[in-house]
Design goal:
Blueprint: E1 2-5, E2 25-28, E3 33-35, E4 38-39, H1 58-70, E5 75-77, E6 81-85, E7 89-91, E8 95-98, E9 104-108, E10 119-121, E11 125-135, E12 139-147, E13 150-155, E14 169-171, E15 181-185, E16 188-191, E17 197-206, E18 214-217, E19 220-230, E20 237-240, E21 243-248, E22 251-253, H2 257-262, E23 272-275, E24 286-289, E25 292-294
Parallel strand pairs: 4-5, 5-8, 6-9, 7-10, 8-11, 9-11, 10-18, 11-19, 18-20, 19-21, 19-22, 20-23, 21-24, 22-25
Antiparallel strand pairs: 1-2, 2-3, 12-13, 12-17, 13-16, 14-17, 15-16
Length: about 300
């Protein structure tokens, strides 16, 4: 049995500089005090990413995660804001990745073609994600009309959705092929192919991939705490043969958006999936507590 203590509020500047400069303590009942570093991916040692809610910050987050894993059990503290990922962050060891609650949104960029969009863990143990939103970049439903290649939006996506962006693929009734958004802003956008005349109806915009936002493969002691999955084209999370998985106080909102538009069985991945294994060595003890699911 142990108790964790982090004395007092932490000044924001304490998280900058060289990795490991800030070390909260864990005090055990036998009096042993253990220190674990907290890594801020904005520190220059992790790269020169531009943190403007638009540019790809995956390389810096990956570097911070890799450094934290190297000392086993350290924490990566993600900042507030939108964190665009152009590819997946691979989690190859024990680490805690923590956001700033609803203020931290990790979002897949339209150019992200990874088989997993945001975070993926393999045959490792003790991985925790907490206090952040995983956004698959698949804008949920909006109302629009089309004339030729011009898309006119009449009802914008719901609050909390990713905005329409260049590079997204359009889905919905009356759409032919897989047209992409090539330019535009606000309520007027240009598509890559002529769609003829499409009267006002519900459409979706998403990356072409139906990759999950997060994934685990034979990961043990995996925890999701106060996280939110939203706006995925396919599954929110895909788990295969993972043990002792807990999802606590978390939400799944507007996921599986491609299936809602195509109604195709091949696109029918919507929420959280935990599968596979022999239930003795792999694939046992998955607990979801106080979860919230919304279309």
């Amino acid at each position: 049995i142990r108790s964790s203590a982090q004395p007092g509020p932490v000044p924001a500047q304490s998280l900058y500089g060289l990795p490991g400069t800030f070390t909260p303590t864990q005090t055990f009942t036998n009096g042993v005090v253990e220190t674990k570093a907290v890594y801020d991916p904005r520190a220059s040692v992790f790269g020169n990413c531009t943190w403007n809610d638009v540019a790809d910050v995956q390389p810096c987050v990956q570097a911070a995660v890799t450094a934290a894993i190297a000392i086993s059990g350290a924490t990566v503290q993600l900042p507030a804001g939108v964190l665009p990922f152009g590819s997946v962050v691979n989690v190859a060891g024990s680490v805690t990745i923590r956001g700033q609650g609803a203020a931290t949104v990790v979002r897949a960029m339209p150019s992200n073609t990874s088989s997993v969009l945001l975070f993926a863990s393999g045959v490792v143990s003790d991985v925790t994600y907490e206090d952040m939103t995983f956004d698959g970049g698949a804008t949920n439903e909006f109302t629009a009309s089309i004339s030729g290649t011009v898309l006119t939006v009449t009802v914008l996506p719901a609050t909390g959705s990713a905005p329409l962006t260049v590079g997204q693929t359009l889905y919905g009734s009356g759409i032919t092929g897989a047209p992409t958004i090539v330019s535009g802003a606000g309520s007027s956008w240009v598509l890559s192919t002529n769609q003829g005349t499409v009267t006002s109806r519900t459409l979706y915009a998403a990356p072409a991939s139906i990759a999950p936002a997060t994934q685990c493969f034979r990961t043990s002691n995996l925890k999701f705490h106060k996280v939110r999955w939203r706006n995925t084209t396919g599954l929110a999370h895909n788990g295969s043969g993972c043990n002792a998985v807990t999802v606590i106080d978390s939400q799944v909102v507007h996921t599986g958006n491609k299936w809602k538009a195509t109604l195709s069985a091949s696109d029918r991945g919507v929420g959280l999936s935990f599968c596979c294994g022999d239930w003795a060595t792999w694939g046992y003890d998955t607990v979801i507590s106080n979860g919230y699911f919304e279309d």
